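Exercise 3.2. Students should predict the tertiary structure of the chain below and write it as structure tokens, then compare their answer with the key that follows.

Predict this chain's 3D structure.
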Amino acid sequence: MSRSKLQRRTFLKGLGTTMALPLLEGMRSESAFAAPSSAVAPTRMALIFFPNGAIMPQWKPTGESGPLELSPTLKPLERHKQDMLVFSGLTQHHARANGDGPGDHARNASAFLTGSQPFKTSGANIRVGVSVDQAAAAVVGKQTRFSSLELGIVRGRNAGGCDSGYSCAYSSNISWKSASTPMAKEINPKLVFERLFGSPDDKQAARGRTRRNLYRKSILDLVSADASRLRDKLGKTDRQKVEEYFSSVRELELRIEQAATKSVKPPKDFVAPSGTPRDYKQHVRLMYDLMALSFLTDSTRITTFMLGNAGSNRNYQQIGVSGGHHSMSHHRNDEKKMADIQKIDQYQVEQLGYFLDKLKAIKEAEGTLLDHSMVLFGSAIADGNKHSHHDLPIVLAGGGGGTLKMGRHLKFEENTPLNNLFLGMCHRVGATSLKTLGDSTGVLKGIEA
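Answer key:
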């Protein structure tokens, strides 16, 4: 494994463990005359959903299109202002009733990435459309170990009714492989970690987990022999990068284990699910760390993350908000409720800032992991009180591999399809064969570098 022949898809292996590596200098073109930029980093896409809309006057930048001046809710992202686009005018038309009556929250989640009208049913005959992540994964997913990764905080159900005659499947999923097949999300950080570092062979993976648990070993212990051989064949810069990567993996292992231990503090007769933190902030940040790790190792280039199921009524005691989120979203212009919802909005934005910090801190090729990513954060409900689905709260962060001109507020004509933005994102991750997505009318113009 000489430095000039180190393959991009190089793995370290141990019992039940397959550990991908980040992009290294030694993975550049084998040609001695290749330019330094020949180790081209792939472009990734993360799609993050939050429920119940936002307090839009505190979310939206003021004025027309131009240099970005952050609103109060988005102020925690000030350090990333030049890495962001904030949109006004984008719409998800099929989250509207369109003759189907109540059920805006279910339509919010199911139409968010599909741009399709969900068939109103609480039975098994669900039908909506293929989501943007799965449309892209069908084209480019074979280039990575996992075609896509679906994460969440709350499991939810795929059977029964959850919102005014709509199946719970619509409220619990934003990722749809086909019109009738939602992609189940994983909510347990420990299981996500095991999936990223497990062997493709299920029996080998199970033996590896058993050995690690029995002897309290790290993933790094199982690949130590392979890692030692690798170090001897790397240059100084690559050795340092690999050591930093190993340190971050070990730190994440420890945090996941600590989170699982700290979770078990309920009444004696209550059994908490192993590895799933009860602390919301801790849970969200672990998932963001795992998303960053999946991008760093090129395990996948496409992820979705639900910060809550549609209509989530979680309270946020940690920031002084005791009321249920969904209940308060029907605020009827009550100033106290609106102020509390704005606190929740800003709290979620702060966690997004943590994720962007993580991506920006990771050097890759001629830039950072954030430069080579697109992170979309938003919802298909704008005003939760009015259940409006136009002028949506949408932020896009990251450079898209140098194809996006960031640091701007972009105001589009009202009812511009959100799926026009998604279509352009798909093209940037390599799914250029896609011509339409849901109700798209073409690629969104004006965002390109």
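Discussion points: The domain at 43-189+301-428 is CATH 3.40.720 (Alkaline Phosphatase, subunit A). The mean pLDDT is 88.
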